[in-house]
């Protein structure tokens, strides 16, 4: 996204040096107060910079629609609160609407703004102007809420869906905002979540009414490849935050796995057999193993989890009882999430919370409070639910049981663990990420400025909890900003094949002939399953100096994987939940509205019925066909590319 502020940068710096010349007297007083060394809780330097740019944009440039691109953990909510206080105190604006893309983000902001908590925490007032906060009561836009709260409250918080015009509540809320309120200010939090046309239309309507609009995000590029329609005036990324010690350093752990035994199953004939590394056909069978099986087949998943739990134990030693480190596991679908949860609980005896789109309010509350020492959970498994807005600093270990092809969602997931736990001390903190080299995430580690990659890690390897992190990334600085149109990316000592990454990401074409394309797809009912592996060595690789550390491999894990038998009703329900979840995920990653979930679900179910169930519906399909379809859901998911999804949702 282009930096719209670079052409003003020299004038902006002179404005700061000259004591904010041209701004209102009361604005200067607020700036002096916020930057005072006497404050109990000081804002970070980049938060002050962001606030000053907003002031300059509004008061000096006389413009009103802007965006702050600030890394996860960089304190965007505190900046929003400071801007609210300034606009109310100085400019007399009294109605502040904060829009969120989902309930997780809304819940987090509700806890920040309820009873003016964030204003009090950061002391965004002085004894002489505290009365300005008296009418900043919070009103939630949600099902069942009365529209009168829009008129009576100064702070309005809700999902953008509460303003959609296809339902009565949305039309009513939008009418109250546009017809009965004056001086409204809009905050569009997580602004990258605006690809849905209805979302964009609502923002356009409100922006015409608003006195000021501020978008905030950590990843401005949207899933549909477009950009928000506001001016980016500040860019504070992961590399800069690492340099300033605002966020944790990321260390990636990767095992080098050798296959020892594979199990063959033919779902048409019922034939089953095992093939070991000593058999002549082993090499040919090994070629049939797909990348997702290295993390999703039960035996290798168990080893990945064991490695993750070793890292979690190291994090507990670092915590030394001051906080509770949490393991965060990310999967592609509900079925995989349930398998992961069961394995963590039954084999590793770890109390685990599962959060999906179907989770109730109690589970969402537990997800927010999981970092508390009183919370019973040590791990949380998510199906792309806990992304932006879920802010639990105690997340210290992330296990990836899925592949990312979208830079947006990859960064968002890693962002869940970036927030520092010890905020006010320069204590080194590490986010341990357990990945697998077969997922080919090198491009992601470049984007998130990984400090170190440890390859060939085993489930028994332990590392010094006080290990030295490598040098901070080199940051490019701008000397002639007026000569460029975009801030360049930081430079790292690692080469990434971005052409290959781009080839893996679906393009933006629309397949209007999607029915014909799906008709040509077939699924081979012969499958191979990884049933035994070995990890020989650990190789710790530093990005900067390329030094290697070799460590002996582990002993075999003897705990068996529990192959739970399901009743037909349970299997059917699991299958429907999985396809619903896949539909939601595909739409979200392709940049389309979740409101089309029912349509895509029907198409996928019809496709499975034709290609796997022999034309039968789920209720009449053979159990072995349902089992086979569940096993190959990653293949089915890959069939529905972005162009095909675009064709489905655009068809009337």
Structural account:
By secondary structure, this protein is of the alpha/beta class. It has three domains: 6-236, P-loop containing nucleotide triphosphate hydrolases (Rossmann fold, 3-Layer(aba) Sandwich); 249-465 and 506-552, P-loop containing nucleotide triphosphate hydrolases (Rossmann fold, 3-Layer(aba) Sandwich); 568-650, no CATH class. 38% of the residues lie in helices and 17% in strands. The protein has 24 helices and 19 strands. The protein has a nine-stranded mixed beta sheet with strand order 12-13-11-14-15-8-16-18-19, with helices on both faces. A seven-stranded parallel beta sheet has the order 3-4-2-5-6-1-7, with helices on both faces. It is globular and about 80 Å long. The two termini are 33 Å apart. 42% of the residues are buried.
User: What's the N-to-C terminus distance?
Assistant: 33 Å
Main structural class: alpha/beta
What's the CATH class label of the largest domain? Alpha Beta
The CATH homologous superfamily of the largest domain corresponds to P-loop containing nucleotide triphosphate hydrolases
Biggest sheet: strand arrangement? 12-13-11-14-15-8-16-18-19
Give descriptors for this structure:
alpha/beta, Rossmann fold, 24 helices, 652 residues, 3 domains
Quick recap of the structure?
With 652 residues, the protein is of the alpha/beta class.
Write the layout of secondary structure elements.
Blueprint lengths: L8 H9 L7 H10 L10 H16 L4 E6 L5 H16 L3 E6 L2 H11 L3 H5 L16 E4 L6 H5 L2 E5 L8 H12 L4 E6 L7 H13 L2 E6 L13 E6 L1 H6 L5 E5 L3 E10 L5 E5 L5 H5 L6 H4 L1 H22 L6 E6 L2 H13 L5 E4 L5 H9 L9 E4 L12 E7 L5 H9 L14 E5 L7 H6 L4 E4 L42 H7 L9 H6 L6 E10 L1 E5 L6 E5 L15 H23 L6 H15 L11 H9 L1 H7 L2 H9 L2
Parallel strand pairs: 1-6, 1-7, 2-4, 2-5, 3-4, 5-6, 8-15, 8-16, 11-13, 11-14, 12-13, 14-15
Antiparallel strand pairs: 9-10, 9-17, 16-18, 18-19
